Automatic annotation (TrEMBL):
<keyword id="KW-0479">Metal-binding</keyword>
<feature type="binding site">
    <location>
        <position position="195"/>
    </location>
    <ligand>
        <name>[4Fe-4S] cluster 2</name>
    </ligand>
</feature>
<feature type="binding site">
    <location>
        <position position="220"/>
    </location>
    <ligand>
        <name>tRNA</name>
    </ligand>
</feature>
<protein>
    <recommendedName>
        <fullName>Epoxyqueuosine reductase</fullName>
        <ecNumber>1.17.99.6</ecNumber>
    </recommendedName>
</protein>
<comment type="pathway">
    <text>tRNA modification; tRNA-queuosine biosynthesis.</text>
</comment>
<keyword id="KW-0170">Cobalt</keyword>
<keyword id="KW-0963">Cytoplasm</keyword>
<keyword id="KW-0560">Oxidoreductase</keyword>
<dbReference type="GO" id="GO:0008616">
    <property type="term" value="P:tRNA queuosine(34) biosynthetic process"/>
</dbReference>
<feature type="binding site">
    <location>
        <position position="188"/>
    </location>
    <ligand>
        <name>[4Fe-4S] cluster 1</name>
    </ligand>
</feature>
<feature type="binding site">
    <location>
        <position position="155"/>
    </location>
    <ligand>
        <name>cob(II)alamin</name>
    </ligand>
</feature>
<comment type="function">
    <text>Catalyzes the conversion of epoxyqueuosine (oQ) to queuosine (Q), which is a hypermodified base found in the wobble positions of tRNA(Asp), tRNA(Asn), tRNA(His) and tRNA(Tyr).</text>
</comment>
<feature type="binding site">
    <location>
        <position position="241"/>
    </location>
    <ligand>
        <name>[4Fe-4S] cluster 2</name>
    </ligand>
</feature>
<feature type="binding site">
    <location>
        <position position="211"/>
    </location>
    <ligand>
        <name>[4Fe-4S] cluster 2</name>
    </ligand>
</feature>
<feature type="binding site">
    <location>
        <position position="166"/>
    </location>
    <ligand>
        <name>cob(II)alamin</name>
    </ligand>
</feature>
<feature type="binding site">
    <location>
        <position position="60"/>
    </location>
    <ligand>
        <name>cob(II)alamin</name>
    </ligand>
</feature>
<comment type="subunit">
    <text>Monomer.</text>
</comment>
Amino acid sequence: MDKVQKHTTLIKTEAKRLGFLSCGISKAGFLEQEAPRLEKWLDDSMHGEMQYMENHFDKRLDPTKLVPGAKSVISFLLNYFPKETQKENTFKVSKYAYGTDYHFVIKHKLKSLLNFIREEIGEVHGRAFVDSAPVLDKAWATKSGLGWMGKHSNLLTKEVGSFYFIAELIVDLELEYDSAVTDHCGTCTACIDACPTEAIVEPYVVDGSKCISYLTIELKNEIPSEFQGKMEDWIFGCDVCQDVCPWNRFSKPHREPLFDPHPELLSMTKNDWEEITEDVFKRIFKKSAVKRTKFAGLKRNIDFLGK
């Protein structure tokens, strides 16, 4: 086994030990196919008020601008599908936000992995990315064979569906590169048909400014009245396009204790949500991604549904 193969096996084995679902590797370079798609998406204002999407256009498309001398983009999937979900007929929180904020959980794992790489292989320069820097996660995961881009624009994998987080290590280490898998959406349009706000404007294209996740999390102003009656009780994020996807029949519960929900979350009724105080909010969502909306933002979402 040559050095490149040995390093690749070492990294993939350790990633599995750290609890990642899978790990795929791509050659670091300019994302030629993504460039026109991203440009058109921005030109059509599908990013709504997410101004940050307009920044660092070059860095989004070229990892060597984020890590000088980068040779490999190592992509990881981490399952978050829960054992139990919220009760029926309540205000809904996206499954990914049930437990501890994934940024902390994954960053910790990636730092451990980077330290492991340095101990085992030597001086390797690299950076860990978890959805918080200008990196096109799904494009890299697709390139490295971890799945294909579904019509809802989420990454899909035959064995496990789509309820997972994507993260990367970009390193200046040469490794064995994986190849992309084929698209298995076929003629299915379940996600397009089910989207409550018709945000999936055509297969593989989501108008972010119409997406319930955007409206409940990213949008800082009032939710436009045109979405009245279309939010289907979602107050933080939305899982509709994933819930209806046939590939998610294969989702299995995660094994990450930090992703387990706060016990109070699953039993909350609509009435509990409507009467939530800032103290309760801070207690239940102390370490959760739900904190992103702040108490006022969550109240806005609840009040909008109650109108």
